Amino acid sequence: MDQNDSSPETPDARKDSDLIAAARGAAVHSYAPYSRFKVGAALRFADGTIVTGTNVENASYGLTLCAETVAVGQAMAQGRRGGLVAVAVTASGADVVTPCGRCRQVLMELAGLGGTDPLIHCCGESEVRTARLSELLPAAFGPARLA
Ligand code: THU
User: Fold this and answer.
1) Of 47, 62, 69, 105, which is most buried by a Cβ count within 10 Å?
2) What are phi and psi for residue 88, nearest 5 degrees?
């Protein structure tokens, strides 16, 4: 993750300020009664569409769904199979939140289908760190490996 790209004032983050706002909006509906850690995710597609998700916890803790995974599921349920150009992830704490390993792999499936390498905006209260998905998940196992 490029530390020089860590301010919300960077061009990439500014360009996607609506995407970041959509992720923050999605987190309002977070179901996180156990961790109280409310996560929002927003995906931008090449046609401009934004699809959101939030974390959905479960009394059987291990069955919890992360916000990014819910957003990818929502997008794929709408028939999207590529065109993922940017992702924003927000959380209730002040610190920058980065996607967990499973979510990186889930995002890679959708990105890989369309051959894109989306920007991932990892947002904190007053800081955004931006990286490409390929930087967060190097040497990824993606759909092309099985084509
Ligand atoms: N969580 C996400 O939604 N996305 C991540 O990438 C990391 C973790 C959620 C899962 C759980 O509801 C809460 O954050 C605490 O781990």
Assistant:
1) 69
2) -120, 135
Smallest CA separation from ligand 1 atom 2, residue? 66
What was the pLDDT predicted at 44?
Answer: 98
Rounded CA-CA distance 18/30 in Å is 19
Query: Mean pLDDT per segment of 10 residues, for the chain of length 147 residues?
Result: 54 94 98 98 98 98 98 98 98 96 98 97 97 98 89
94: domain CATH number is 3.40.140.10
Domain interval for residue 18: 2-137
Beta bridge mates, 31 = 56
Nearest to 76 by CA among 98, 54, 51: 51
Tell me, yes or no, if 68 is annotated catalytic.
Answer: yes
Domain count, the chain: 1
Residues at CB less than 6 angstroms from ligand 1: 32, 35, 37, 39, 55, 57, 64, 66-68, 99-100, 103
Amino acid at residue number 51: V
Pairing of strands 50-54, 84-91: unpaired
Amino acid at 88: A
In this structure, is residue 11 part of a structural domain?
yes
